[in-house]
């Protein structure tokens, strides 16, 4: 009994010493995250079996009662250095790290790593970050706790999710910032299997009311063919990908917020091994572009209403299986999402949502299993953030 009492005293003393050291040095350890689940149903389309319909966007596509993810974020913030270890569990988390090389090979635990990076505040102006971090492009993010709408946009779903590399952030003034980065190909989280790199940049302007960010990404996403390595006839490699993205959002009053996201992504034609040599492919660049507007208004301290309207278009077969396309590989969709945010407690938010997706070509099946251009659906999500 005395040994147990002594152990408790020692643990209390060590804890006090640790906390006191943190206070003296200005460093701190934090634990945060979220848990979410949802219910989803279509109004004009099947909800069961292989015929269940859903928009081809990320995370909220399963019928009935479905799980999101558990998100646990541990961080250390020191005077000069720190780290973030962001772990995800569940279907939404698995979708977020879909391109993990270890995950695709069915080995290792890297599939639960959403972010894992360290940073160094070199000075008051420069911060270096090294590791795996969520993308700087776009308006929406992976965590449902940080999005107003629970279902996600097409632009977010087909832009990058994460990057692994090094980036440098520069505080140019109180309002202006600049970021430059060198990274693995998009969404390859643990290592680089292709030997090519992607370059990123961001110019930002922020005020107390909001901010605007102009983002760039450029690089080869699937490597170059090399005759010094074994190749199979018909093996192909795409060219370089370029994406420019504009994100902005401002509080226009105490109760009204306006946001905008616009993006353009294009990938050049690449090369093919014809069985004897590597030849350049003919054809036009392929890709997608879109624009989305966000309007949110607070009806009370505990309830807000938000509308997202998005136009998204693919060209020259830039994305397969995302929207209905014509014979030339072109197609578009207009999607409207109306969401409510009801705070039933400090940490728990309920999100009822009605969504309409309307394609330029037939893409969905209706209740009679006939082809149709539109899909209307309802969703109710619960998000607990801590």
Automatic annotation (TrEMBL):
<dbReference type="InterPro" id="IPR011486">
    <property type="entry name" value="BBP2"/>
</dbReference>
<keyword id="KW-0732">Signal</keyword>
<feature type="signal peptide">
    <location>
        <begin position="1"/>
        <end position="21"/>
    </location>
</feature>
<dbReference type="Pfam" id="PF07642">
    <property type="entry name" value="BBP2"/>
</dbReference>
<protein>
    <submittedName>
        <fullName>Porin</fullName>
    </submittedName>
</protein>
């Amino acid at each position: 009994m005395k040994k147990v009492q002594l152990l408790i005293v020692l643990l209390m003393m060590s804890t006090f010493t640790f906390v006191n050291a943190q206070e003296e040095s200005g460093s701190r350890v934090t634990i945060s995250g979220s848990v979410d689940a949802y219910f989803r149903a279509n109004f004009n389309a099947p909800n069961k079996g292989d015929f269940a319909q859903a928009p081809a966007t990320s995370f909220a596509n399963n019928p009935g009662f479905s799980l999101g993810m558990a998100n646990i974020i541990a961080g250390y913030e020191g005077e000069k250095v720190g780290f973030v270890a962001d772990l995800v569990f569940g279907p939404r988390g698995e979708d977020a790290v879909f391109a993990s090389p270890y995950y695709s090979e069915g080995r290792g635990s890297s599939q639960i790593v959403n972010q894992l990076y360290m940073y160094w505040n070199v000075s008051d102006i420069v911060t270096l970050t090294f590791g795996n971090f969520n993308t700087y492009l776009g308006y929406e993010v992976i965590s449902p706790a940080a999005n107003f709408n629970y279902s996600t946009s097409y632009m977010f779903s087909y832009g990058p999710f994460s990057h692994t590399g090094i980036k440098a952030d520069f505080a140019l003034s109180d309002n202006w910032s600049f970021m430059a980065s060198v990274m693995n190909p998009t969404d390859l989280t643990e290592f680089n299997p292709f030997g090519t790199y992607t370059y990123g940049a961001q110019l930002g302007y922020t005020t107390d009311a909001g901010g605007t960010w102009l983002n760039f990404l450029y690089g080869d996403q699937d490597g170059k063919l090399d005759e010094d390595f074994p190749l199979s006839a018909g093996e192909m490699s795409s060219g370089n990908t370029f994406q420019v993205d504009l994100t902005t959002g401002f509080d226009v009053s105490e109760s009204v917020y306006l946001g905008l996201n616009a993006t353009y992504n294009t990938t050049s034609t690449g090369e093919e091994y014809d069985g004897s040599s590597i030849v350049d492919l003919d054809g036009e660049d392929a890709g997608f572009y879109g624009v989305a507007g966000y309007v949110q208004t607070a009806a009370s301290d505990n309830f807000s209403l938000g509308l997202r309207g998005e136009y998204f278009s693919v060209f020259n077969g830039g994305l397969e299986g995302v929207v209905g396309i014509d014979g030339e590989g072109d197609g578009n969709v207009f999607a409207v999402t109306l969401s409510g945010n009801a705070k039933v407690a400090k940490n728990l938010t309920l999100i009822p949502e009605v969504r309409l997706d309307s394609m330029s070509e037939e893409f969905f099946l209706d209740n009679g299993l006939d082809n149709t251009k539109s899909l209307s659906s309802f969703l109710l999500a619960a998000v607990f953030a801590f």
